[in-house]
Structure formats: C-alpha cells, structure tokens
Amino acid sequence: MRKYFLRALIILGILWALGGYLYLPSTEHSLAAAANAKLADGKQREIFKQVKAEFSGQQAILRGVVGTEEDKQLAERIVRDEIQVPKERFFNPVKAVHNEIRVDPAATSRKPQWLIASIQPGGVRVDGLVQSPAQITQLMEQFAPKVPATGGTPDAAVVPNGLALPAADWTATLAKIPDFKALLEGKMDKERGLLAVSACDGNWSVLLPAATDEEITAKLNLPKISAAEISRPLTKLRAWFNGPSQAELDRLATEAKAKQEAQIKAQAEVMAKAAADAKLAADAAAAAKLAAAGPALPAYVGVAVAAKTLNLFGAVPDEAVKTLATTTALKSYPGRALDSSNLKLEPNRTLPTPVALTLPAAPPGKADFLTLAQLDGTSKLYNADAFDSEITKDFPALKFKADDLALPLLGFRSALATAGSLAKDEPYLALVSDGTTLNLTGEVAAEATKSLLLEKIKAANPALTLVDKLQVSPLVNDAKDLAATLDSLPAFAPGTPTLAVARPGQKWRPSVVHAIYFKTGSNRSKDQERAIYQMQRVLELLPQARFEIVGHTDNAGNAETNKKLSLERANSFLTVATAAGLEPAKLSTRGAGPAEPIASNDTADGKALNRRVDVLLK
Hints:
The protein is of the alpha/beta class. Helix content is 38%, strand content 22%.
C-alpha cells in the first residue's frame, strides 16, 4: 500500500511541474499584455510612453523613463491595483511590483504651466495653461485690478488641464502680477501696449509689443511650448501695434467719405426717379379711389385757437374754399399767426348751396379753445380740452374716423400740455390676442418706456406674433415705477383669444377691455374715447365679441345711492358707445356700486381707482 502511495505522489509532482511549465509562461504573457495596455491607455496622455512592464511569474518589473516621481508612483499603482486577467478575475494576479523606472524631467510628456498677458487700448487678454478652473478664477481676480479701465474686462483664454505639470510657485505668481496701470500711466495711445509672461514660477517678465516669439520663448524658458501657442494669443496685440499710421487712417477716411458721398448722390438720383414714378402711380390710384368712392362727405373747417396762433384743420374741395376758410378765421380771431397745413384739399368733399362759413365768437376770458363748422352755416364752440368723441357726436354727417381729429390737433394739444394749460392724461396699455397675434395698444410718454415694454412682452409671449401699435405721446404723464406692471405681465396661451389692460405702474387686469376713471361728481373722462377705440380694435380681431359695461364707485356715501350712480355711469357710457357706432346688441350694463373695489378705499389714490366703469369681454 505504501508503495502505491509513493508512486501517486511522484506522479502528482510530475504533473504539477509539467502544468507550471506550461501555464506560467502563458500567465506572464497575459499579465504583461494587460499591464502595457493599461499604461498605454489614452487617459494617461502618453505619460508612460517610455515605460514597459514585464513579469516573472506574478511579479511585475517596471522599466523605462518618466518625467516626475509622481508619474513613477502612478505607474506602480496602476499595475499593482488595476491589472486583471479574464481567467483570474477572482483574485489580483499581481503579487508584487519591482519599480525600476528612472525619473528624468526632460522625458515628460506633460505640458508645463505658463501665462501670457497682452494689454492694448480697448483689449486685455490672458492666455496660457494651468491645472484647474479654480486657478483661472484666482488669476483673473488678481489680474483685473491691475489693468487700465480703458482695457475693459480682461478676457480669460487660459486653458485648464489636470495633467499639466505642477506650478513651481503659484502663490508668488499671483502675488507678483505686474501693475500695468502704473506701467502705462501717461503713455500715448500708440505706446499703451505691453505683454507679460510667466512660467508660473513666481516671476513675470514684461516686454513691449514688438517682442518676437523667440524673445518670449527665451523668457519663459520652458520645453514643450510650440511657436503657435505663443503667437496665437498675441494676434490682436500685434495687429494693433502694426496697424496703419494716423496719416494713413486719414487718407482711408477721406477716400471712404468720397465713396459714400458718391453712393448717396447715386442713390438720391434713383430715389428721385422712383418718387416721380410713385407720384404718377399714386395720382392714378387716387383718381381710381375717388371714382370708386361712395357718397362724398361734406366739407368742414376746424380752428384750434391759442393765444398767439390759429391752427386750421379739416377737409375742403378746392383752393377757393380754403382761401375762404383762412380769411374767415383771421377775421373772426384776429391778431394771431395762421397755420393752415392741416386743412386738406379733398376734391370729393361736397359743398351746400349757398356756401356759408360762420365761426362762433371767441369766449370771453379764454385764450385757448376749439371751433368746428360745416359750410352750411352750422358751427360749435368747444373748450380746449374737448374730447374727440364730444366733437364727433355733434357732427354725425362727417363720419369721422379714429384719427381724423386726433392727428391735426396733436400739435395744438401738445403745446398746451407743455405750457401747463392742458392737463395731461394718464398713460395706459392694452393687450389683445386672437390666439396667433398679440396686439399692443395704448399711450406712454417716453420711447424708453415703450422699448422696455416691447422687450418684456415679447419675452413673456414668444409663441405669439407681437403687433406694436403703442403710441409715444406728449399728452400723457410719465409712467410710474413699472415694476408691478412688468412683474404681472400676462403670458397668453396660443390658440386662445384673450386680453388684458393696465395703467403703467399697476398690475395687469385680465379680461378687461378698458377701465374708465372718473373724478368725484363727474361723468366726463378721456378714458371713454380710449374704451371705444379698444372695443373697435377687439371687434376687428374677434368679430363675435360681446361686452359688459360695469359701473363702480368708491365707498363714500350711501351704498344704494352709489349702486344707482354706478349704473347711471354704465348707461351713460353705453349711450356714448352706441353713438360711436357700436352695436347695442353686443352691449349690456350693470351697476356694482362699491361692492367690487380694485384698491383700498382708505386712500385718495385707492378711491380714484375704484371710481370707474369697466368694459369687460363677455
């Protein structure tokens, strides 16, 4: 039995030795292949390009050259901890690592850190290579206070690379950034350019813009920085420095001016011909329009009388009637300069037989007033602050359109408002959407206010096409703080007709076509005209629209009396609206009294907002 046991041990030993002889070379080859593949991985950026791994059994031997001690230790960690062979996945097949790698700084593939700053009038730029974005932030914080203000905000074009070599002295590099303000103080524009370079070793070298790439390379004294890396950041500085002289710039400017004048002259000739052709076409179109027009409207003459001027407006058929109008106005209101530019010639205007133009006498004690007359002898006198709607309802046969009175009276009213003899109205805003377009109307006093509103409304409603009909008018007060209006801007859903209204400085009110505000004890308000205008615009976009006219009061006095007053105000505006041509079937009224305030009744301003008539979209 013992003899057989010995034989078995001998056979097992032979088999183990034979297996080791066959398996060990295969394991060494697999481990070496896996280790060298890991070291050559692109993530290592060729740091271990000159390193090879060999194996004796499961012990690794590393030979070759790297640039830093840190890279040598990294190679050892990679081979020791990260090498796996598919067949040996249940344990780490690397038992030991013999690191015989040699460290030679000249052999590294890592880039050194470096910086180039270029400064010239109107431009400051910092280029280079560092290890992290945090270093860039630190650099620009220290750099910005040391450049001239005329250079603008420094442009950081520094590249972060985690595999860059560590800076020799980053803290000192930040602390020693040159004071370019002091260096450039008192210099002429053509001398106000500098560049500075640093190898991130705590030192900076300052050079003039004429410095060559070779001079800059010598100052940096760093390997592995290409000529392109140096010259590219300095393109703008060198273009400025090598630019044309002032004499050359003057010559180029003279040539450009002569060329521009020649182009303007040629364009003027083209435009003159186009204008002549356009006039012929316009005359033909006007004749065709006149022939196609329906029943002609009566001629009329208006006079806006101020202390020193007579502003004639209206429409008459020929020069003879225009002469009659001017002589009658000068005779009726003598001692004033005449402006008849707004008295238009419209050949299709009709005249009665006989023609009789009578203007009412000037009211005692009033320097500013309005008159309007037809040429059948009828006329009427108005205060200077008369609303267009108050005039149009007295002359229904003239069928005034929206701007027939507003435009010719704009100059007259603006002069009175500037002089303080005509009270300015409050500005207003209105938005109406048909689901596709967004129509902005209203009046504001300043172009800046209009521009800001257009910008914010577009941003809040990017899916709708904005149609701008907002007027900048000298007849309204400046807008108050716009914060509440901008913060409450409505965002309208595409495909859904809707609207909103606001006074600049107040929040937007959805579903309100317009709000008509009244002073205590008065039923007269400029907002009546605006409301009619807005209702007409809504019907253009939404022909099936209907309106509810709701009267409101503040809480002063008896509630029942206020409710009756609010209904009277609503019905009063209903009369004005129907006289302006709005269909009664589309209108309804309601008196809410003080029950639906939109502001506190504890203040005068709040009460003023609560005394109103709201036109609502039903």
